[in-house]
C-alpha cells in the first residue's frame, strides 16, 4: 500500500511537474481545469489529459498586479503560475462559470496568458429547474465542439461513452475507499486519503483506476481483519492509533494535507469530506443511457452542489445535516478559503441548521500559507475538548 500512496503523493505534491513529465512521456495534449464542474469526460474523449490546477504554494507577487488582494489564494495562485510560465506546457484551459472570482480569472487569463487555447463553459446556476437540464446539455454540446476544434480531434459517442465509464469507475472506487475508511478510520490516515483524491484529479486516469482498484482491495482486506474484533466507531483510532472523535470537513478546496494530520494529533479524525477535493468530486455516478451528453448533464445537475450553484433553499443544509447524522459524527469543521464569498454567505445558515440538529461546528478560515501549526492545533484541541 505504501508504494501506491507514494505515487499519488508525488503527483499531489507537484501537479505541474507531473503534467510536464507526463506530457513528455505520453505525447498527449494536456488541458487544465479549475473546478469539478468541468466535465473531464469530454477532455478524455478527445484524446487529451485533464489536469486540475491548484495554484502555487510559493510567493504571490505577479498575480497581485492583476487581482485584488481580497481574491482567494486559490484564484491568485493559479494566476501566479500562469503569469510565471508554470503552466506553459498546457495546450489549453477550460473555465466553468462558478464563483465571481473564477469568472474574472477566466477573463484575466485570456488577456494575459497567451499560451494555449482558452474556453469558457457557461453552465446554469440553478440546477433544479425544468430548463436546467436542456441548458446544461446545450453547454456540453458547445464545449464538445470547442474541444474538437482546438484539439483537432473528433469526439464520437463511443469515445465519450468509454470516457464516462472510465471516470465512473474512478468515482465508485473513491466512494468505496471513503466508505471503508468511514467505517474504520484506522485503515488510512487522513492526509493519505487527501493525496489519493487530489492525485486522482492530476494523474493518468487509467493508472488512477488501476491504483485505486489495488488500494480498495488492500483496504477491504484489512477492514475484514479489523472487523473480526468488534469495536464501536467512536472508540476506534485513527491511522496513528489514537482514540478519535469523528468529524466531517465541509467547504471548498482542501489544499492543506497537514490540517488532517493536526486534527488527528489533537484527537479527532475526519471520516468524510463534503469538499471539491472530497465527496463532491466523486458523488453521483453517471446513470447508463444511450446518450452520453444527456448522462453527463444528469450527473452534474444531480450531484451535491457547492454554494456557487443553487438547487433549492434548504438543499445544502439538509444535505450536511443528513451527512453528519448518517456518518455518526460529533461535529463539523468548515474549511473556508479566506475571501471566498459563496462559502462565507453559506456558512451562517448551515451552522444554524447544524445547531438545531444538535451538531456543533467550527469555522476555520485558511489561505496560503497556513497559520502556525501551534495556533491551528490549539483551535482543534479546544473544539474537540468541547465535544
In short:
The protein is of the alpha/beta class and 387 residues long. Helices cover 53% and strands 12% of the residues. The strands form two sheets. Strands 2-1-3-4 form a four-stranded parallel beta sheet, sandwiched between helices. Strands 6-5-7-8 form a four-stranded parallel beta sheet, with helices on both faces.
Tell me what you see in this structure.
The protein has 387 residues and is of the alpha/beta class. The strands form two sheets. It has a four-stranded parallel beta sheet with strand order 2-1-3-4, sandwiched between helices. Strands 6-5-7-8 form a four-stranded parallel beta sheet, sandwiched between helices. Helix 1 packs across helix 2, helix 4 runs parallel beside helix 5 and helix 8 runs antiparallel to helix 10.
C-alpha termini separation: 33 Å
If helices are DSSP runs of H or I spanning 4 or more residues, what is the number of helices?
A: 15
Largest sheet: 4 strands, parallel
Number of strands: 8
Helix content: 40-55%
Strand content: 5-15%
Q: Low-confidence stretches at least 5 residues in length (pLDDT < 50)?
A: 232-241
- Average of pLDDT: 90
H and E string: HHEHEHEHEHHHHEHEHHHEHEH
> What order do the strands of the largest sheet run in, or round the barrel if closed?
2-1-3-4
> How large, in whole angstroms, is the Cα Rg?
20 Å
Q: What would you call the shape?
A: globular
Structural class of the secondary structure composition?
alpha/beta
State the main characteristics:
single chain; 387 residues; alpha/beta; 4-stranded parallel β-sheet; 8 strands; globular
Amino acid at each position: 500500500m505504501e508504494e501506491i500512496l507514494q505515487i499519488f503523493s508525488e503527483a499531489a505534491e507537484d501537479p505541474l511537474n507531473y503534467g510536464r513529465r507526463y506530457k513528455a512521456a505520453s505525447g498527449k495534449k494536456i488541458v487544465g481545469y479549475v473546478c469539478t464542474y468541468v466535465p473531464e469526460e469530454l477532455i478524455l474523449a478527445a484524446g487529451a489529459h485533464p489536469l486540475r490546477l491548484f495554484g502555487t504554494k510559493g510567493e504571490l507577487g505577479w498575480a497581485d498586479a492583476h487581482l485584488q488582494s481580497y481574491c482567494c489564494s486559490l484564484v491568485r495562485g493559479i494566476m501566479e503560475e500562469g503569469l510565471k510560465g508554470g503552466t506553459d506546457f498546457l495546450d489549453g484551459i477550460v473555465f466553468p462559470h462558478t464563483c465571481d472570482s473564477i469568472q474574472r480569472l477566466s477573463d484575466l487569463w485570456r488577456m494575459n496568458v497567451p499560451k494555449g487555447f482558452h474556453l469558457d463553459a457557461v453552465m446554469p446556476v440553478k440546477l433544479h429547474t425544468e430548463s436546467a437540464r436542456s441548458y446544461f446539455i446545450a453547454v456540453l454540446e458547445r464545449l464538445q465542439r470547442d474541444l474538437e476544434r482546438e484539439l483537432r480531434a473528433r469526439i464520437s459517442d463511443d469515445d465519450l461513452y468509454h470516457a464516462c465509464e472510465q471516470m465512473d469507475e474512478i468515482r465508485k472506487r473513491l466512494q468505496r475507499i471513503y466508505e471503508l475508511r468511514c467505517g474504520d478510520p484506522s485503515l488510512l490516515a487522513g492526509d493519505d486519503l487527501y493525496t489519493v483524491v487530489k492525485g486522482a484529479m492530476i494523474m493518468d486516469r487509467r493508472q488512477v483506476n488501476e491504483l485505486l482498484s489495488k488500494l480498495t482491495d488492500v483496504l477491504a482486506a484489512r477492514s475484514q481483519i479489523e472487523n473480526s474484533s468488534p469495536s464501536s466507531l467512536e472508540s476506534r483510532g485513527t491511522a496513528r492509533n489514537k482514540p478519535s472523535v469523528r468529524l466531517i470537513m465541509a467547504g471548498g478546496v482542501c489544499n492543506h494535507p497537514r490540517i488532517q494530520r493536526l486534527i488527528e494529533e489533537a484527537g479527532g479524525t475526519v471520516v468524510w469530506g463534503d469538499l471539491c477535493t472530497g465527496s463532491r468530486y466523486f458523488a453521483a455516478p453517471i446513470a447508463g443511457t444511450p446518450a452520453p451528453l444527456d448522462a453527463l448533464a444528469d450527473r452534474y445537475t444531480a450531484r451535491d452542489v457547492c454554494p456557487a450553484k443553487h438547487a433549492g433553499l434548504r438543499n445544502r443544509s439538509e444535505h450536511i445535516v443528513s451527512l453528519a447524522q448518517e456518518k455518526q459524527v460529533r461535529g463539523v469543521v468548515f474549511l473556508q478559503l479566506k475571501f471566498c464569498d459563496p462559502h462565507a454567505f453559506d456558512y451562517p445558515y448551515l451552522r444554524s441548521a447544524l445547531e438545531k440538529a444538535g451538531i456543533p461546528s467550527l469555522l476555520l478560515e485558511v489561505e496560503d500559507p497556513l497559520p502556525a501549526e501551534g495556533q491551528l492545533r490549539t483551535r482543534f484541541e479546544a473544539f474537540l475538548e468541547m465535544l
